[in-house]
Structure formats: structure tokens, C-alpha cells
Write a structure and sequence with these properties.
By secondary structure, the protein is mainly alpha-helical. The chain has 2 helices and 4 strands, in the order αββββα. The protein binds zinc ion.
């Protein structure tokens, strides 16, 4: 087994390791929303990879919640209208 002839000095070792952390990371652009993305990763903005939707993003969930809220409000309003119409005859009967 080959063995180094001399010990690597602290200076030489530190000069070598000084360059290890410095790397320019490549940044790609999302095909669908033009946001900066890491290459070969799903876009965190729109949840698409190569133009195909593969991930539910936070904005998607917000939209879904908004739809759910609107549906619930519509149901409540319908119930309120129904309860008001139901209450009025009951009050008339009690009086
Ligand atoms: Zn995108």
C-alpha cells in the first residue's frame, strides 16, 4: 500500500480545504412559471417537473381552502335562510 512520503502540513491541508466550500451552484429556470429552480428538482413555486404537475404547493392548498371556505359559507347562508324561514312560523305559532 502506497504511503505519503511526507506529512501534509497544516498550511497545505488548510489551503486545499479552503476551496472545498466554494462552488457556484447552477440555477435553471422553470419551464412553466420561469422561477429560478435547482436543476433536476421539482419547482417549489408551481409544483411542476418538466411541465408535469407532481407536487401540491402551498398556493394550491390555499386555493383549495378558499374553495372549501366558499362552499361552507354558501351552505351556512343556505342553512341560515332555511332556519330563519323555519323560525318565523314557529314564533308565529308560539304567539
Ligand atoms: Zn415553476
Amino acid at each position: 500500500m502506497p504511503v505519503p512520503k511526507r506529512k501534509t502540513s497544516k498550511s497545505r491541508r488548510d489551503k486545499r480545504s479552503a476551496n472545498k466550500g466554494l462552488k457556484v451552484k447552477s440555477i435553471a429556470v422553470c419551464q412553466s412559471c420561469q422561477a429560478p429552480v435547482v436543476p433536476h428538482k421539482v419547482c417549489s413555486e408551481c409544483g411542476k417537473y418538466k411541465g408535469v404537475k407532481v407536487l401540491r404547493t402551498k398556493t394550491d392548498r390555499m386555493h383549495e381552502r378558499g374553495q372549501v371556505r366558499r362552499e361552507l359559507e354558501a351552505k351556512r347562508q343556505g342553512q341560515d335562510v332555511a332556519s330563519e324561514t323555519a323560525v318565523v312560523p314557529e314564533g308565529a305559532k308560539n304567539e
